[in-house]
């Protein structure tokens, strides 16, 4: 056990720290409670009481947030339930609290070592969110189509299975109720105490009879659909070959030859599938519609649905191409990987907690907020941003003004180039800082760059007509002959 004040190693039964004299009795009870909840969660997880295990682990972390064993186990349970974003969040936090000898390193490396599987998880989350939005807006048929994709890609994604079952039950048709029952029977094996799953099973208790002809008919229908489908019904891992497109661009295809053989195969398969789909759409729309109906298990007979699916596919391909461009180009000053984004966010939070707001803002501005995949992390980002950016923009503005006036640390020497750099840095934290915009105009006026000076003065007058700098900007423009 480590002392909470000085981090010195002390025996667990010690009442006081030999190094700093800290009373350890309350801390020891807290650690013991955290470990007890962790052991309880471990026992629950072994019998697949995942809901109970999650509750116990959260209790454990409330007593001791530094319990990395509990945090790692919580991440593994989230991963088992198909919640990949929540799992990665827990492992990144665990690594932050314990940098060395942490199993979280292996878990994160295992996920990141398989880009196609990581992309598959990313796609399931997007499709689930799209299905949820469709369901909320009354487009239940489209929601079912999207959810069937999600369930096929990740059968253990409990929330997706539950939402699909709910939509099936809402139709009121007995064959759909049988489908919902089969889904719930499948996911109850993942988490045997999930209350939502158990409630749905109770609602579907009339489907329990194996002799029910409707249940048999649905099973035969699903078996026939799997036989006729262009994509065979295999284990989830076999679908890794379908989504490798994210790794390479067509223009750099020769470089793929130096990569691992499996990556080459994945990329080639993806490039073959897309042209095949487009050729089928152009040559035989009815046949393509039949394939989509069988693969998606959708009973929609409107040809416009097929066109919408094609447009959605093209949009996904365009998004993947944009992601590849971002990965191969992009702004080198920003962090991009999930691990780097969360590490930088945690470092910024640490600086903020220590009162180092300027350092926190410097780290925060490097983060591409679009890389934050959860609402919690985005709110976390916005909270720190609101607390640090005003101080940062004001600090850089004052330094830039001193460099312009030859005051402060620039006393006796006007450094307009440094002033321009500092004032632009101020605007990176607040683009509406009219004081910084005005002094940028003054810097360019002093360096005889009249056109740039006019640009900044006009920006104040046109975009910020209520600013106190408007009168000064008009006066400077008259000096420049405008």
Textual characterization of the structure:
The chain is mostly helical and 482 residues long. The chain has 21 helices and no strands. It starts with 24 loop residues before the first helix and ends with a helix.
Task: Spell out the key features of this protein.
single chain, 482 residues, mainly alpha, 21 helices, 68% helix, flat
What percentage of amino acids are in beta strands? under 5%
Give the helix proportion (percent range).
55-70%
> Given the structure, what is the number of helices?
21
Mean pLDDT: 77
The biggest beta sheet is recorded as: none
Global geometry: flat
Q: Rounded to an integer, what's the Rg over CA atoms?
A: 29 Å
Tell me which oligomeric state these chains represent.
Answer: single chain
Terminal-residue CA separation: 73 Å
Number of strands: 0
**Structure class:** mainly alpha
User: Can you tell me the residue ranges where pLDDT is under 50 for at least 5 consecutive residues?
Assistant: 210-215, 224-252, 327-333
- SSE series: HHHHHHHHHHHHHHHHHHHHH
């Amino acid at each position: 056990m480590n002392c909470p004040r000085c981090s010195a190693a002390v025996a667990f039964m010690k009442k006081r720290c030999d190094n700093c004299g800290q009373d350890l009795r309350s801390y020891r009870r807290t650690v013991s409670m955290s470990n007890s909840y962790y052991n309880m969660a471990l026992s629950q997880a072994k019998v697949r009481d995942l809901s109970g295990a999650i509750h116990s682990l959260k209790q454990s972390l409330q007593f001791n947030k530094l319990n990395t064993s509990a945090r790692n186990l919580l991440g593994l349970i989230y991963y088992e339930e198909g919640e990949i974003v929540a799992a990665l969040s827990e492992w990144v936090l665990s690594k932050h609290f314990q940098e060395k000898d942490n199993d979280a390193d292996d878990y994160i490396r295992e996920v990141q070592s398989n880009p196609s599987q990581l992309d598959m998880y990313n796609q399931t989350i997007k499709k689930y969110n799209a299905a949820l939005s469709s369901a909320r807006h009354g487009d239940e048929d489209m929601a079912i189509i999207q959810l069937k994709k999600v369930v096929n890609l990740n059968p253990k994604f409990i929330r997706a299975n539950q939402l699909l079952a709910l939509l099936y039950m809402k139709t009121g048709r007995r064959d759909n109720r049988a489908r919902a029952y089969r889904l719930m029977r499948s996911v109850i094996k993942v988490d045997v105490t999930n209350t939502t799953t158990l409630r749905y099973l109770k609602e579907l208790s009339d489907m329990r009879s194996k002799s029910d002809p409707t249940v048999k008919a649905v099973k035969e229908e699903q078996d026939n659909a799997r036989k006729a489908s262009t994509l065979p019904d295999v284990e989830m891992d076999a679908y890794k070959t379908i989504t490798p497109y994210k790794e390479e661009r067509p223009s750099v295809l020769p470089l793929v030859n130096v990569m691992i053989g499996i990556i080459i195969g994945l990329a080639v398969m993806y490039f073959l599938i897309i042209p095949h789909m487009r050729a089928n759409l152009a040559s035989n729309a009815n046949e393509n519609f039949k394939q989509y109906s069988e693969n998606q298990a959708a009973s929609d007979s409107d040809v416009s649905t097929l066109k919408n699916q094609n447009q959605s596919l093209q949009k996904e391909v365009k998004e993947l191409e944009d992601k590849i461009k971002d990965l191969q180009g992009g702004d080198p000053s920003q962090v991009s990987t999930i691990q780097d984004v969360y590490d930088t966010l945690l470092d910024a939070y640490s600086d903020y907690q220590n009162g180092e707001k300027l350092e926190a803002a410097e780290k925060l501005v490097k983060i591409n907020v679009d890389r934050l995949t959860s609402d919690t992390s985005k709110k976390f980002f916005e909270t720190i941003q609101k607390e640090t950016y005003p101080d940062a923009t004001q600090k850089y503005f004052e330094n830039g003004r001193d460099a312009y006036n030859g005051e402060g640390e620039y006393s006796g020497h006007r450094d307009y180039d440094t002033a321009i750099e500092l004032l632009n840095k101020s605007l990176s934290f607040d683009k509406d800082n009219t004081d910084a915009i005005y002094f940028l105009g003054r810097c360019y006026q002093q360096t005889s760059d009249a056109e740039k000076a006019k640009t900044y003065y006009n920006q104040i007058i046109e975009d910020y007509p209520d600013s106190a700098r408007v009168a000064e900007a008009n006066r400077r423009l008259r000096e420049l002959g405008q």
